[in-house]
Amino acid sequence: MISSQEFFDVCRTAAKRIEEALSPLIGTEYGAEELCMGADNTPTERLDRVAEDIILDLFREKKVCRCLLSEEAGIVEIGGDEGIAYLDPVDGSFNAGAGIPYYALSVGLSDGQEMKAGYVKNLAVPEEFTAEKGHGAYLNGRAVHPSCKSELSVSAVSLYARPREMQRLLAAGYSSRRSRLFGASALELCYVACGRLEAFLDLRGTLRITDAAAAILILEEAGGIVSLPDGNPCIFPDDVRCGRELLGANKPVHEILSTLMRSV
Fold first, then answer.
1. Does CATH number 3.40.190.80 belong to domain 152-262?
2. Torsions phi, psi of 124, nearest 5?
3. How far separated are the first and last CA of the chain, in Å rounded?
4. pLDDT over 90 at 39, yes or no
5. Is the CB of residue 41 less than 8 Å from the CB of residue 119?
6. What is the pLDDT of residues 100-117, one digit of tens each?
7. How far apart are CA 59 and CA 68, in angstroms?
């Protein structure tokens, strides 16, 4: 398996190629056309396929890892000697297809036991989030950390919940200054990592390892906490058909929200 820095270099090359390839497709019906059902049982849009093919070709050329798990193609052999990469080629593909400038390339690298590196590139603006296990998290090379806000009343939360889940949450006393839903979970977790949001809470049970692997490492390396909504450890299987609920937040807000969720 290649080093973290080599991994980041390959991801940067891929991100540049993807940006160029997607440029004429963003905000078009052609780019948003659904080609087939992906391995995760959700539609694969043309944008997803184009980005995924670029990653697969480059990762095979560089022998980045032994195999790669993508929500579109499933598990794919790459040709390296060890390790597994977790790929969401276009996190927020609906946004990309609609021309909304909030979508990203998300790639996490594991040695098979634990995550070693995470890379999330906002493909609409020049922002790159990276993290290497034990070495912190960075935005465009600058170290980042979650905010210090300690009350929900002054916090901004990225919140995904269906009506029934939302009703239970409100009944338990949930109230934040702002609730947001941007449509690209990897970027939203990174926003918690750099203090733009205080928390990310997804109660739908649909978040997959390919969605979250890279961004979870970035948030944890920044100093945030990631768990199930009730505070228990969140363990993702290597199966894009299996989803999880997730809470990622700065430490004080994580304590508040996990305590609240245990009462729901």
1. yes
2. -100, -25
3. 43
4. no
5. no
6. 999 999 999 999 999 999
7. 9
